[in-house]
Amino acid sequence: MQSAPKVVIVGAGIIGTTLAHDFASRGARVTVLDKNEVAQGATSGSFAWITNQTKFRNADRLGEEGARHYFNLHRLSHLRWRYLQDAIDGLPIRWSGCFQSAEPGTEQAEELAAELDRRLRWGSPTHRVTAEEAREIEPGFEPGDENFIFYTPDEGMMSPVQLTSKMLEAAIARGAHYSPHDAYESFRKTAGGYEVQSASGKREADILIFAGGIANPDLVEGTGLKAPLTHSTGSVVHLAPLPRLFDSVILGAHVHAIQRVDGRVVIAKHFSGSPVGDPSTPDPEELVRIAARVLPGLKDATVEKVTETRRVIPVDGLPVVSRLASLPGVLSITTNAGISLAAGLSQLITTELLDSVSVNLLDPYRSQRFEGEAGVGVDSAAPE
Hints:
This protein is an alpha+beta fold. It has helices spanning 14-25, 64-87, 107-122, 131-137, 160-173, 216-219, 284-294, 338-355; strands at residues 6-10, 29-33, 49-50, 93-94, 98-102, 127-129, 148-152, 156-158, 177-179, 184-189, 194-198, 201-205, 207-210, 233-239, 249-251, 256-259, 265-268, 303-310, 320-322, 330-334.
């Protein structure tokens, strides 16, 4: 094992811990650094929907080809989550399907119709259902006037903080080391690799990965690596644990809701598809009342907390994989879709860095697109 590569990962969110597991599974000597503790950044405030959607936040320049590539990357990553769920006992993911609904004749219904058309053409098992069929599948759901409904049976959700902790535990079981409250400070290139400086001291590394989420732009500043973000916040209302009321992800016209594995319900206003520049935190009690219209079981729910988190949104909406020829073994990964994509991106990045290949599936998301080199998945076509 002394010849195994030494890997330092900066960030103990969902991306960083999944990378730690995958590198450790390949025999690498892994250390995960975090300035706080596991899953304390954007992961903790995520809605946590594992999605097949074809319209992506802030990706206004993404044409048909690029959107389909990104959709397929999501689908590939879903398969990897299922594999990891078999490999790691107790991974809190539930594949319980998703309903999206709107009132017929509204702008939201037109958007859903366009979304449904893309999903059908691109191979998702999404399909239209009536309100009666929706209630048969999900008895806790009462769509009311929102009877333009489609259902995607192979979508799901996770409990993100618990899952991230599980991924870290699985990595540690394979020999990884975890160093919380240990802020990354700098690195320098050496004859044999890299020397990484953190609050606790210096470490040697053959591979250094920045997976710091919203901190990535600051972490890579001055290195030549790129992690350009645009500012956006997202608010989620967390309800106190309840008996199991519903299984599916519910995305209504006015509220989105998930009941996680631990019984806690999280609700948000247009969290999953909202644009950059969302309004400030909604009134939580009012949002509960709105949610209870489509999920009557929430009528007497108690608000436990509200999280308002800065979201990780690259400037063009797509993941940013940044590497430099002058710094082999150093990589930055930044994405706003870590819930859906962490499993897939981690596998691709692990392969690229350990097997010294260029993984073609990552090409549309490389940072060279910000230097005037068009990515495969980005074009100038008008958004669909």
